[in-house]
Specification:
Blueprint (H helix, E strand, L loop, with lengths): L1 H10 L27 E2 L12 E5 L14 H13 L1 H21 L5 E13 L9 E14 L6 H67 L5 H16 L1 H18 L22 E4 L2 H4 L4 H22 L4 E12 L11 E10 L7 H68 L4 H35 L38
Parallel strand pairs: 2-5
Antiparallel strand pairs: 1-2, 3-4, 4-6, 6-7
Helix pairs in contact: 2-4, 3-4, 4-5, 4-6, 4-8, 4-10, 8-9, 9-10
């Protein structure tokens, strides 16, 4: 009879979970206002940072996109970061927790069976019933079964909510990977840029010291005043004064990189990073707008939150309906162990219960309205996430385009400033121009040279920011399954993988 009741309950089950309504993806063909960028032409005189780039719309990002920089140092750092990051360990543990919570909830679909046994020895006084004092034993053993038939779909709705939470944690893990990869690459580029700026500044100091020697010689010959000597000494000191802040910034960037690879700064052993040895990726894959919502982990995480919110509305509605429970047990009871399994010792019971709330002061309806309001907020958050993500991609595309143009102009300014500086030095040495002319040319040359280094590194960082804005590389198959989410060896990562969330990339 128990199993017949269970079958009827299952076959007549229903659900009050509302249909999931995910806002549609924006129906646009371009991320940016105006004409979408198509290609970046070669910029001469700036090395690999001036390489031409072409936008490949609709193409997929390489799984290990950072390898496109052709830097063994960066590849090694990303590998170390993935292997040692405590952030990934925490994300994996949180995903495992969500997975086990789901497995726990799935148990509500099955009958709960327990086995009980009891033995007692009791002495009763005859004073209570006018007879003799009695001492007896009682042995009981039974199998107890209870089941909550999911007639109104409450159990399924609860399971859907936990499943959505598990999905959300899966995408959070993907986001953690993407954020770690992006921050490691951009921080490594920042270290290379600061090292280049320190070397450039040191070179400028040496050039200015050479000019100081010339000015002193001119002073001893009586062709300039001592004020010119003092001014050049001040210029040398001013340039030297820029070195400590640069070195501090370099130290801070190296320390940040150490944290990313999971090490204390004193133990990190960060390799030397040479900006001139980096390779600027020539082909820039750009996902179509219609594909971005299925690739970025933050969008997929927001969609999982929609599923959870939808389930919570259904759960609030289902709780307004009766709660039904079926229980039963079968066993034996006898005063003697030898006769325990006799037919006369058999005991059994079966029962069903139904509980329906009649009055609760409006609590259940208020809970339903609260769940509906929460779902509206989640829908708005989902739409906000898409807007922000599309804006980030648009910004990244324009940054690649505009910063390339900025590098070209900075290089042109540097070439002109360098020529003016060389001419000013020759003419000052020959006595045909005054020191003020030399000083102006010297300062302009110094500023333009440092500006070129900064613009070079910015192009590398812009490319990394675009890869991250696309949601990173397509995730390998094992990242789609919550049962296989442990850290993998980067060197063995497949060449294709689905995507992930908007992480913050350090610049």
């Amino acid at each position: 009879m128990v199993f017949i009741a269970l079958g009827l309950a299952i076959t007549t089950g229903c659900s009050f979970e509302p249909p999931l309504k995910v806002p549609p993806a924006p129906k646009v063909k371009s991320y940016t206002a105006g004409t979408a960028p198509k290609e970046i032409k070669v910029i001469t005189g700036v090395g690999a940072a001036g390489r031409a780039q072409a936008f490949a719309y609709g193409a997929k990002v390489e799984a290990r996109w950072w390898k496109l920089y052709n830097s063994k140092a960066i590849d090694h750092l990303v590998h170390r970061a993935i292997k040692n990051s405590p952030t990934l360990v925490a994300s994996e543990a949180t995903l495992e927790e969500a997975h086990q919570n789901l497995k726990s909830v799935e148990g509500i679909f099955f009958p709960q069976v327990s086995l009980g046994a009891d033995a007692q020895r009791q002495r009763q006084s005859g004073a209570g019933f006018g007879g003799a004092t009695r001492t007896f034993s009682l042995y009981t053993g039974d199998l107890q079964v209870s089941y909550d038939p999911d007639i109104f779909g409450l159990n399924r709705i609860v399971m859907h909510s936990f499943k959505a939470q598990e999905e959300q944690q899966l995408y959070a893990l993907q986001e953690a990977y993407l954020t770690l990869e992006g921050n490691t690459v951009t921080t490594a580029i920042e270290v290379a840029s600061l090292e280049a700026r320190v070397k450039t500044t040191q070179s400028l100091v040496r050039n200015e010291e050479n000019i100081l020697k010339i000015v002193r010689q001119q002073y001893h010959l009586g062709s300039v005043t001592y004020l010119d000597v003092v001014n050049q000494e001040s210029q040398v000191a001013a340039t030297e004064a820029t070195l400590p802040p640069l070195e501090q910034s370099l130290s801070a960037a190296r320390h940040a990189l150490a944290v990313l690879v999971g090490r204390i700064p004193s133990q990190a052993r960060i390799p030397k990073l040479n900006l001139d040895l980096l390779k600027l990726p020539a082909r820039l894959p750009v996902s179509l707008p219609s594909a971005l919502v299925r690739q970025r982990p933050d969008i997929l995480s927001a969609e999982a939150q929609l599923k959870a919110g939808d389930a919570q509305v259904g759960e609030a509605v289902a709780k307004m309906y009766p709660l039904i429970q079926i229980t039963g047990d079968i066993g034996f009871e006898n005063g003697r162990i030898a006769n325990f399994f006799d037919a006369s010792s058999l005991i059994w019971s079966i029962a069903g219960s139904l509980t329906q709330t009649i009055f609760d002061g409006g609590t259940l309806r208020a809970n339903k309205r609260a769940a509906e309001a929460a779902l509206k907020a989640v829908v708005a958050d989902y739409q906000s996430t898409i807007l922000n993500d599309f804006s980030q991609v648009a910004n990244a595309l324009r940054a690649v385009q505009n910063d390339a143009q900025a590098l070209q102009y900075q290089q042109q300014a540097y070439v002109s400033a360098f020529r003016a500086y060389k001419l000013a030095r020759w003419e000052y040495k020959a006595g045909s121009v005054d020191y003020t002319t030399l000083l102006i040319a010297q300062v302009q040359y110094q500023q333009s040279r440092l500006a070129v280094v900064t613009a070079q590194s910015q192009r590398y960082q812009d490319t990394a920011a675009l890869f991250v804005a696309m949601g990173g590389g397509w995730w390998p198959k094992e990242y789609r399954t919550v049962h296989k989410h442990s850290v993998v060896d980067v060197s063995k990562t497949p060449t294709t993988r689905p995507a992930t969330t908007q992480p913050t990339v350090r610049k």
